[in-house]
Amino acid sequence: xxxxxxxxxxxxxxxxxxxxxxxxxxxxxxxxxxxxxxxxxxxxxxxxxxxxxxxxxxxxxxxxxxxxxxxxxxxxxxxxxxxxxxxxxxxxxxxxxxxxxxxxxxxxxxxxxxxxxxxxxxxxxxxxxxxxxxxxxxxxxxxxxxxxxxxxxxxxxxxxxxxxxxxxxxxxxxxxxxxxxxxxxxxxxxxxx
Amino acid sequence: xxxxxxxxxxxxxxxxxxxxxxxxxxxxxxxxxxxxxxxxxxxxxxxxxxxxxxxxxxxxxxxxxxxxxxxxxxxxxxxxxxxxxxxxxxxxxxxxxxxxxxxxxxxxxxxxxxxxxxxxxxxxxxxxxxxxxxxxxxxxxxxxxxxxxxxxxxxxxxxxxxxxxxxxxxxxxxxxxxxxxxxxxxxxxxxxx
DNA sequence: TCGCAATTGTAGCGAGCGCTACAGAATCGC
DNA sequence: GCGATTCTGTAGCGCTCGCTACAATTGCGA
Lengths: 193, 193
Hints:
2 copies of one chain form a homodimer. Chain A is 71% helix and 0% strand.
């Protein structure tokens, strides 16, 4: 019963996600977003409400695309060992991709930043880590061969999650795929995965 | 040949370090620092040059105290296994300390933040991680018993460093000492440390 | 005691931040 | 067409940021 949106909402969200991913929450200003999304200040506050609201939408979008694909790869592998290795391979592929927005997982990045002051964003970031750990645990649990009978699935999932978070931080400083692959394989071997 | 500083330089540096540690680089404003250090704007820019310069001084101070102590604990243990466990214990003790400025390693925190845009700060943060890895490696290397003959010292040090970085991030979201101790012991056991 | 040099307090610059008020433009049912 | 409603562009608010210019103050050597 009134005027229609003159811009492509989905495309605008994609572009905003890319920008947040590349420059972080605090590092991305409203004016940067407007320029990238090619919309005006009025449209922004009318249909996206606020920077925080937009960021939450973008986190969801990141989850549905990048994270979901990684999880699907892990889940569809023949066994837990292969699934977990597929997870790391996808992660390293992404880190190798020169066109990627940044050497960083958007969820992991959100854990740090002053974002932690904001309870909603903090909770959202925490959920991302919990989800990852749960995915590891369930992948290990439903493995018919139960490859690492020595170590309880929960503990193993926690170790892997912690290690993955460390990898993101290390990659930010100095990424060397060969080294990362090698040390990861040694770790997985030691853990009996 | 002229006027003397009316404030305690060392004490001011300590207070600034505490504040940066607690709120991060970007999250700490000049006015916050001035209030905490109990000095004026003029004094600040005269004797501390800039926020960036002060931050580098504070990082050095943090290194000389907190990090140095952790390293000393690791180095002075009877063997590598005990040293590495002492390292983690000191880290967990710190995370348990309610009076500590934040659940965070100041060096690790500096790896993230938009700080990475600044080459000097980035390099400084990278050095912190390299140092940690080198300490792990040398501790493992000079162990008479060479406890983990299975795995090369360098790879082991890299895995531990990565894991420690992950721990810092996990602790930021949800810290549970019992869980962390347990999963860390399982990891060390698996690695033969 | 005087002059020089170092330290200090004040006031404000220029820029960016997220956000809002508001008027004009577009699109619907009628 | 008309009115109601929704979208858009502009202008600017109040605030904070890191930093600087500059004059006043202090303490030293001569």
